[in-house]
Amino acid sequence: MKLYNKEELKDSRLFFDTTPPSYLSWLGFFFVGVLVLGFLSLRFIPKNYVVRAQGTIEANDKAYITPLANGHVVEIHKQEGEFAKKGEKLLTLSAGTEGVQENEITKQIEELKQKQVIFDKYEKSLNEKTNYLASKGKEQEFYGKVAYYLSQVQEDKRQENTKTESTAEKQKELAKLEEEIEKIKEDNHTEYSTQISRKNNELKRAKNKKETLNNQLNSAQKNNEDTSQIKVEIETVDEQIRTLNNEIEDSTRDAEKKLETDLKSKNDEIKTKKQEIKELSSQSQAQSENTKQ
């Protein structure tokens, strides 16, 4: 590669005769292409034109606003031509009845306050079971209700006292029946014991008599005496012993049967009394719950 100094390059055609590098050619083609594309795009890209002038804007669709109630305009919140969002208040109307409605509402409030006082007295009367209400005016209706309630309470109380007394009376009858059962057992035992004791004594005497007759029979047989009369007496005593044994068995059976019958009768009465007491208690409990409600 040849090197040139500054003086040699002043009048030289070196730069003009030298072939430019290839990248410069491609760069030139690129710029030319950009210019051509720019001119072509001007034909297709929309262009905005600014015109300064005075005019009016008018909507394509007109909307008419109609209020739900008739009245006169009290206040305008949006002026003509002013932008309004959805839900914003445009104006305020008055039907001319605001004062009347206010007076009516005030009157209703006062009536409700008076009713509240009556209700408080009504509740107090029910809780304390004393009629604090007046029998005239607005309290008259509730006075009648409280009076009816108190009369019902008194009637329930009277019935409750009656049931309590009846229950107490039946409790006494029940206790008396239980005492009678014990007395029946005791009387039956006493009667049975007396009767059996008497029969046993008779049986003992008969056995002693038989033993005596047997001794006499043995003695007579040893002495070769007549024993027919003794044997007849022994048979009579044996029959008496058998009869006494049968009577003892019959007495025992009859006493047991009589005791069973008497006890069954009294137990049935006791069962009936207990059922009556249970029913009275259930009725009293139900009535008490109804009174509380």
From TrEMBL:
Transmembrane regions listed in the UniProt entry: 23-42
Keyword field: Membrane, Transmembrane, Transmembrane helix
Protein name (record): Biotin-lipoyl like
Gene source species: Pilibacter termitis
Domain of life according to the entry: Bacteria
Comp. bias regions, Polar residues: 213-230, 280-293
Amino acid composition bias (Basic and acidic residues), ranges on this chain: 199-212, 250-279
Region (Disordered): 185-230, 247-293
